[in-house]
Each structure stands twice: as structure tokens, then as C-alpha cells.
Amino acid sequence: MYCTDIMMEEHENILRFLTSVRSMCCKVLDGSELVSGDFRNIIDFARNYSDHHHHGKEEKFLFNEMESRMGAIGQNLIRHGMLVEHELCRAHIYDLENALKLWDKEQKTIYKLDILEAAMGYATLLSRHIKKENDVVYPFAEKHLSKEVIDSVNDKVSAFEAETEKQGIQKKYLSMIEYMIKTYGAVEDQHDLL
Ligand SMILES: [Fe+2]
Ligand SMILES: [Fe+2]
Questions:
Q1: Which among 106, 127, 161, 190 has the fewest CB atoms less than 10 Å away?
Q2: What is the C-alpha separation between 127 and 183, in angstroms, rounded?
Q3: What is the separation of C-alpha 140 from the centre of its chain, rounded to a whole number of angstroms?
């Protein structure tokens, strides 16, 4: 299915970014300098790539169809599951932004801890969320949506991709991932996610 193939590719990109976030947090915890600008990359990436570019396609094109066509299961899986988690991701990013503002004014340990907590909370939540979508939500959509609906979602995703390609969105955030990996490395090992 074209739309979920694109979105699973984005999941891989996001997971790769999150490994560098985990690595950056480890380095700060071990005593490296906390570079505000690099933590602000997380906010930029989260809002414009993970959220607007990726969650935007899920929410506007695929999940709305699942929610309106799959009865109680669609409602529970989407409205009370995936959409709630998208909101929780936004809350972590809001906390990260506030903690960075405080840190930029005064370098107190508690602000550093708040920054690490928000960044790590975001990374863990979004990794777990992606696993659920790959393993459960997308396969469920592929199985239960009609061909007509899938075709129309594919068309909308394709038009959106062409438009954002023109704006250079994919290119910008793929190079941000490479910058972060080059600067901070990647922590791949992660406890098993539910
Ligand atoms: Fe999602
Ligand atoms: Fe997703």
C-alpha cells in the first residue's frame, strides 16, 4: 500500500533521529556540554517533520478514514489510541521548549534534568507509538479499508509528498538526521517496548 509504505519509511527516518537524541542525552549526562541549538533541533524536527509532515498525513488522510469507517474498533484504535499519543508527543516537546528557555537564562541542574527528561520521554513514547503503528494499526487499515478508500488516501498522500518535496521539507529533515548522527552518534540499544 503506497501510503503506508511512505509512512513506514518515515518511521525509519524518525527512529534513526531518535537514536541520535538518546545518544545526545547520554553524552550530556556523562558531562558533555549541553548545546541548546542541537536540543532545539528536536523541537524543529518534532513539529515540522514528525508532526506536521508525518502525523499530518496520518491524521488527515488515513486515520480519519479508519475512524469513520471502522466503528468502535476504529474509534478506540485511533481517537483513544494514536491521536492521544500524538498529543502526548506534543506535550513532551512543549516541556522541552520551556525547559530550554529556562536553561538559556540560567544553567541550573534542574533545568538540565527537565531537558533530558522531556527529550528522552519524547524518544521513548514515539518509538513505542511507531512500533504499534507498524505492527497493528497500518496492517489493520490494509486489511479492512476498501480499495476505493485506499486509492483515495494514496492520491492525497502522493499530492502532499509532491508539494512538500517542492518546499524541500524531506531534504531539510533528512540532512538534520545526518547532522545529528554525525555529531552525537546513535544509541541503538533500547529496552523492550510494550
Ligand atoms: Fe502516529
Ligand atoms: Fe506514524
A1: 106
A2: 21
A3: 20
Residues in Cβ contact with 15 at an 8 Å cutoff, skipping those fewer than 6 apart: 127, 130
Q: Which of 178, 172, 168 is nearest to 44 (CA)?
A: 172
CB burial of residue 16 (10 Å; 0-12, 13-18, 19+):
middle
pLDDT tens, residue by residue, 138-173: 999 999 999 999 999 999 999 999 999 999 999 999
Ligand 1 center from residue 32 Cα (angstroms): 32
- At the top level of CATH, the class of 2-184 is mainly alpha
Write out the three cell numbers for 135: 505492527
Cα 58 to middle of ligand 1, angstroms: 6
Q: From the CA of 56, how far away is ligand 2's center (Å)?
A: 9
Say how far apart CA 101 and CA 105 lie, in whole Å.
7
Residue spans of the domains in the chain: they are: 2-184
Residues with CB under 5 A from ligand 2 (ion): 133
